[in-house]
Predict the structure.
Amino acid sequence: MAEHVLDVRNLRAEYPSADGAITAVDDLSFSISKGECLALVGETGSGKSTVALSILRLGKALVSGEILLDGENILSLSECEMQRIRGRKISAIFQDSMSGLNPVITIGHQMAAVIRLGNKEARRQEVKEKCLSFLSSVGLDDVNRVYSSYPHELSGGMRQRVMIAMALSAGSQSLLVADEPTTALDATVQKGVLALLRDLIDEKGMSMLLISHDLGTVAAVADRVLVLYGGVAMEEGDISLFLASSLHPYSKALLKAAREDLFSLPVSEETVPGCRFAPRCDEAEERCFLSCPPIYNVGERKVRCWKYGACDGCSSFCQ
């Protein structure tokens, strides 16, 4: 059995509001093995970024359940203990590189600060050499110029590569969380960044949680895919099988929208006690509106849909 770097069990994330708690993620469970990329996909508002922030112990959501990183439940750790894990065991790349970089500090100084978190005794020249090495490793040319530059002096693609280099320089050995890492980049730059992420998985054995609404991005990088709708897992399985023959009606609608280059579906504000996707589903039956289906095992895949019959063995998502 493959070694699990990350095990998320019964994750629930709620945002407080004047009208009561808003549930963004509901009873979500999944795992990521060493050297594997799991893609979390779904429309805007499906809970993808909340999952990422929950794993990083950032954001304002109230989180319950278990998040096991290398077997340790990080939800039980203090903030001080969590600060020692960020960078060393888990790193992150976010979609907006300008908000992730300090605009008034050079790239070199920002990377040096990250490296010194793990080695406060490192000499200045040693730290600089490491910075240049990491910048070179992500495919940047003229690394001395990049090292001395401010963020606004670099293109979007270069800043995104800098963010990846900083994630690597932090020394994370376990998990990289990449939240929409190629958003707003042109097609050529996207291709290079995606190839770089895949190389990190294959060559360095890193594990990755890739957050994306772009199925093209997912196809280029991921090994497995987990589909979220309304904070609930709808389908999980091998990326090739998902793209060739998705199971859940929502997954099929996502793929159809992607092929038509129109990632949007008819919106419904209706809520029902059954399947959350039922008000928008062309294949919904009466029971779909009455009770929520469990996750069914279909071969090596999982799908939350009444179409797939009696459960053939309880999975981690079964209710």
